[in-house]
């Protein structure tokens, strides 16, 4: 789905709002899988279309080399990678960019729920 910049910005604001609600309710210290499930519930309640654990196949020189699972894809436009780590590392950003390329989504959000204030655990990336 092709989206203009303004609608992508609105969409990411809605996703971030949902993530803030999850963080307010659950707080830090849980497993990534719990945050992913809770965020999917919150996004569904806000009527945002999403796909969880989207299968992505990696090929190398035309041969299947492995399978990946993308945490969430919202409205066919934004990859959401959920983390519960002490701090983001460069590999997390590389992972998100790879997922964005494989899915064809122009935007991605890294969301780290293991922080006292969720805004300190957000990173927005664009292809």
Largest sheet: 5 strands, mixed
Extended strand count:
5
User: Overall 3D geometry?
Assistant: globular
Compute the separation of the termini in Å. 15 Å
Structural class: alpha+beta
How would you describe the overall organization of this protein?
The chain is built from 3 helices and 5 strands. The two termini are 15 Å apart. The protein has one domain. A hairpin with a 2-residue loop joins strand 1 and strand 2. Helix 1 packs across helix 2. With 127 residues, it is of the alpha+beta class. Strands 1-2-3-4-5 form a 5-stranded mixed sheet, sandwiched between helices.
Features:
3 helices, 5 strands, globular, alpha+beta, 39% helix, 127 residues, five-stranded mixed beta sheet
Summarize the model shown.
This protein is α+β, with helices and mostly antiparallel strands and 127 residues long. Helices cover 39% and strands 31% of the residues.
Topology of this structure?
Layout: H1 5-26, H2 32-45, E1 50-60, E2 63-74, E3 78-83, H3 90-103, E4 107-112, E5 122-126
Parallel strand pairs: 3-4
Antiparallel strand pairs: 1-2, 2-3, 4-5
């Amino acid at each position: 789905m092709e989206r203009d910049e303004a609608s992508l910005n609105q969409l990411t604001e809605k996703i971030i709002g949902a993530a803030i609600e999850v963080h307010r309710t659950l707080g830090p210290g849980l497993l990534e899988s719990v945050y992913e499930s809770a965020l999917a519930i919150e996004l569904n309640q806000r009527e945002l279309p999403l796909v969880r654990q989207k299968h992505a196949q990696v090929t190398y020189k035309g041969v299947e080399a492995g399978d990946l699972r993308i945490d969430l894809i919202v409205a066919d436009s934004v990859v959401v990678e959920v983390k519960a780590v002490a701090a983001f590392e460069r590999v997390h950003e590389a992972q998100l960019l790879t997922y964005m390329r494989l899915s064809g989504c122009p935007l991605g959000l890294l969301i780290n729920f293991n922080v006292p204030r969720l805004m300190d655990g957000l990173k927005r990336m664009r292809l």
